[in-house]
Amino acid sequence: MQEVADILHNQILIVALIACITAQGLKLVIDLIRSRKLNLTYLLAPGGMPSAHSALVGALATSVGLTMGWSSAEFAIACLFAIIVMYDAAGVRQAAGKQAKILNQLIDELFQEKHNFNEERLKELLGHTPFQVLVGLSLGISIAMVFSKYVWQVI
What we know:
Elements: H1 2-8, H2 11-35, H3 52-68, H4 73-90, H5 92-112, H6 130-154
Helix pairs in contact: 2-3, 2-6, 3-4, 3-6, 4-5
């Protein structure tokens, strides 16, 4: 049972998860403002503004740097991990989303001609724009800095 308690008291893990959850919550708020409709699927959806993946890895790397030191091997690992995740979010997953959009358009056109195809839609919002990744990263770094400077000092 001590292992579970240790995990729950891991400040680096907690800060990274808070950053991720905050970013997902902001997606819901931003969509609510844009569409004036409450769409709870944004709490679990990939893609969108801001990037929750970038917020998570940004907070993770920043917390590791603040805790272990900026020249530590742990920070180097966390930083490289963050770069890979953000590259994937803005690169590979964004490209997959564009392909899904094109495939969905093709399916729509085929159905207009009464072909018998499976009409299951592909998810188009998979990745992020570079701006969404940058905003997520900034959010993660900010949350890690605030928690490091204010919250953990009080607790």
